[in-house]
Amino acid sequence: MAQIDSSYTHRDGDTRGIGYRRWVIAQATLTACLKLKGMKWVVWSCWIYAFLQGIFLFGFGQLMDPSSAVYAFITENLGFFKSIGPMFQGWAEENPRIAIGMTYNLFFYIFTGYIVSTLTLSLVALGMAIPRLITSDLSSRAITIYSSKAVSRLDYCLGKFGGVMLLLTITWLGPMLATWLMGNLMAPKISFFWHTAPALLHSSMFVMSGMIFLGLMALGVSSMTSSPRTATSIWVGVLLLGVVLSRIGEGSENYWLQYLSFWFNLELLQGWVFNISGDFIELGTEYPSFTDGHIFDRFKERLGIKKNVSTPRHDVAVAITCLSLLGGAALLTLYKKVKPE
Amino acid sequence: MSIAPVIQAAELSRWYGIVMGLNNISFDIGTGLTGLVGPNGAGKSTLIKIITGQLRPSDGELTVFGMQPWNNPAVLREIGFCPEDDALPDRLRARTWLRGLAMLSGIAPSAAPDHVDAILDRVKLERVHWEKPLGQFSKGMRQRVKLAQALLHHPRLLVLDEPMNGLDPMGRQEVQRILKQLAAEGTAVLISSHILHELEALCPEILILNWGRVIASGSQLALQRRLQGTEANLHIRCSDPARFTRVLFEADLLLGFDCTDTSGDDEGGLDLRVKDPQRFSDSLVDLLTDNDIALHELRSRDRSLQDIFEKMTE
Predict the structure, then answer these.
(1) Which of residues 120-149 of A touch B (CB under 8 A)?
(2) What is the ipTM of this complex?
(3) What pLDDT sits at residue A300?
């Protein structure tokens, strides 16, 4: 039998640690996703949308400043704002937490999780990216080579997860932060920063929770098959199933079906994090005449706030449990599929 | 100086459901070039997967550099693996993919490009192809890229599954040269191949598997000697072949013979199957001198790995 000198060291140069290797996987995943045809358009759309939202917030900020040219222009030329403008201004001086903080909270509630938000664009981005996450490694069988390198299965998955998180940061979290920052930097007063801090906190909490959940789901779906088309179809199927279950369960005896829909669960989570109902309750207490109108009721209804009560905690607990179970199922799929055996 | 085997298996088994992939095998593999031989279904791929940490043993233990390789980056960073499968992402360029893999192996981003270029030069992939997508590569070029990725991190153990597949004769020679050079540098190289004559020329050490069991392991020479303990196949040319076969029969040394020269020449060649090679060797000179036979040529026909393989697996 041939023998070796175990003191022999062949390698030259430094070797970076496992954190660096995970980062390499994450970076490569993001690069592969961004190189996809059409992905740049989706990313640009997210940022243009964020910019437009920023402009809206700039306009809102200007309503608080009677000396601004924008205020003069708006109140003189747009009939609706003739009465609203001075009202906001009075509010801003009397109760800035409601006038500024609550408006920002409502704004980010709508523009972080609704159909009009960058979440929709992020879901499109994920749908496009899914074949490039794990599916492509399975179909090319390159996963055999990756798994023979000095990274464990967990490291590989963490790296891929990091890549998805980076993609969602670019399409969802980043634009949201940029909107908030833009609105505040162009606001007439520095105090906007702390009045709107709760809105930022709520948005960040919800978006980051959503990112983690959607990232896990995307990885789970991507690891299910080595066929890119099948992976995309499964993703679309999961999204549609969520919508269907939510609609079937709504107002029916089988209301529990709604909890199988991640859309519904995310909405519940969002309602709890932003506590918009609480905001409306406070607003009704402080300014009862303002909230009594029919228009206001319809607005609340469209936001899904039917009663002046906060989202029940047990509902949120069930939603979080269901989201965790779905995430767990995705993790289990990853564990089963992303193994060299 | 402390010494240890590179790969050590002790009562190693692996099942796939009720199918036995490896059946309670034990062996040691050291530095240098070792050939892994066996028919289809012998358990070669299973063994390679266990060595490269892609499969967990069902029972027993296999260690590489003293550690278990399953999901163990500490061992995997010492192993380079060139799979038999065509495991390259077609859409990526050779250089880009290898740079990513170099970084995945812990090489700094600033050092990776030069490192990759050096490795691509080493496996003799022409520079004109470096920036082409892998999907455009021929099988031979893909084989070189697979070899390059296995060498990227200067592994101390290189595991190659059918590395010569798709390579032209020149390419095979180059790969053989690289492997010999690596072995000379101290790298342990384990090669699984169906091309036995190439392994014969390349690997002094052999591990033969059949039906999930190790049926022989060690140096080719030692295996040869082991086989010769019972019988040996020889080719001989002498002045009087007919007389020589009669003498061997009388001495109870001959199991069979075949005339290889049918021209009727008295000095024609003979293929002999002799029993007890050691006794044959000891008595050959006496037999020749006593019977006044001149020996022109004597060589063993058992020297090929093919013969060892066939005898061991029959």
Answers:
(1) 136-137, 140-149
(2) 0.77
(3) 66
